[in-house]
Design brief:
Number of strands: 12
Shape: globular
Strand order of the largest sheet: 3-2-1-4-5-6-7
Distance between the termini: 15 Å
Helix content: 25-40%
Length: 389
């Protein structure tokens, strides 16, 4: 199928969307859109709801709009009007065959899906391109589930921010060193299929853990998280900020250790930056699976196996929403378990004294790789359309 494109004198319009599940998918959507706009001169607009919209509106210099509702069986108007849609982990937005035919679907968690997630009638079998962040053998796993022509890409991280050249200080002026952050605590978007309450449950657990660790770093912890316009608060007496993508990269470069929930996007970015990393407990089921894989890697026993063990009783074959609720309930119980809090604090202190960088593979060019596929396909379609006329 050859889809109509704007005249050769115009720029193709690309809509970029992401599932409102934490900040990870939105961060990847932003990263890809930035390459499409900066390096391929495409007309990019970002759309979102919930935590995805929260993240996107915090990024400077981009065009972001709420994703309007649509009638059943009809495409959202903003997506229907676009020449291409880059969709990060939002299969519910692939609503019709026509929209599937212009959708480039980006899957950053391909390793966690089962056969029930990709039935033969799934619209994901009809998308123009299916691109998988190939971490934990995701591309091979998706192929085993029946997806054909999956395009593997490397880790997807934000491109470096375009910063002006630093001004030369006057002769004789003291050069101020960049401020160091001993411990950067990153909690992301707190989105979860179990609902808003799950984020509050997780924050209650994290508050107790950070309180136990804070006496070792009384003035050296800084928290980055989505406060959802005040709906999420952290009561551990620590400074809290919502960072843009560029702001997070700046904070990452200036910290000694990252302490965060084991979201894959954070792990990829920390791995790329080669920063020492110490995990908090998982927020959701995908983070349980990530913790399990990292705990299984060779190395001395420590924090990863300890983090994983409370969630072992969750049935893997259960529906995603049921597993999300189970993780939330376990986190509720852990937040009340003084013995767990004491053991975590002991292991975390040891990890912070002997920090390691997580190894999730390299290179980290996924945003450029996805953008290159989209831009090349749009150019081919444009050429075919012009030849037909």
């Amino acid at each position: 199928m050859i889809l109509p494109l704007p005249p050769a004198t115009g720029r193709a319009r690309v809509a970029v969307v992401a599932t409102p599940f934490g900040f990870g998918p939105a961060s990847k959507a932003y990263s890809i859109g930035q390459v499409l706009a900066r390096h391929h001169a495409l007309d990019v607009t970002y759309y979102g709801t919930g935590s995805a919209l929260d993240f996107l509106t915090a990024q400077p210099g981009i065009r972001t709009e709420p994703l309007g509702s649509s009638r059943p069986g009809q495409d959202p108007p903003a997506l229907a009007a676009a020449d291409a849609v880059v969709n990060v982990l939002a299969p519910e937005l692939v609503t019709t065959a026509a929209l599937a035919a212009r959708t480039y679907y980006v899957d950053s968690l391909g390793f966690m899906w089962g056969a029930a997630d990709l039935p033969p009638d799934s619209p994901l079998h009809q998308v123009r391109a299916y691109l998988a962040q190939d971490i934990f053998d995701s591309a091979a796993h998706l192929a085993r589930l029946g997806l054909r022509a999956v395009i593997p890409v490397s880790g997807i991280v934000a491109p470096p921010p375009a910063l002006p050249s630093p001004a030369v200080p006057p002769e004789g002026a003291a050069v101020r060193k960049a401020e160091r952050i001993p411990v950067l605590v990153h909690l992301g978007g707190l989105g979860n299929p179990a609902g808003h309450t799950s984020g509050q449950v997780y924050l209650t657990l994290v508050e107790r853990l950070l309180t136990a660790l804070r006496r070792d770093h009384p003035d050296g912890m800084s928290v980055a998280m989505n406060q959802a316009n005040g709906a999420f608060t952290l009561g551990a007496g620590l400074p809290v900020r919502q960072l843009s993508a560029a702001g997070f990269h700046h904070a990452l470069a200036g910290c000694d250790t990252v302490l965060s929930s084991p979201g894959l996007t954070t792990l990829v970015e920390v791995s790329q930056a080669r920063r020492p990393y110490v995990p908090l407990p998982p927020q959701n089921w995908s983070q349980v699976l990530i913790s399990r894989r990292l705990a299984a890697r060779p190395g001395p026993p420590g924090l990863w196996p300890f983090l994983m063990s409370p969630y072992d009783r969750i049935a893997e074959q259960a529906p995603e929403a049921e597993k999300a609720m189970a993780v939330s309930e376990i986190n509720r119980q852990l937040g009340r378990d003084d013995g767990y809090l004491t053991r975590y604090a002991r292991l975390a202190r040891h990890a912070m004294a002997n920090p390691r960088t997580p190894d999730v593979g390299a290179p980290f060019e996924g945003a450029r790789e996805v953008a290159a596929v989209v831009a090349a396909d749009l150019a081919t379609r444009r050429g075919a359309d012009e030849s037909a006329h």
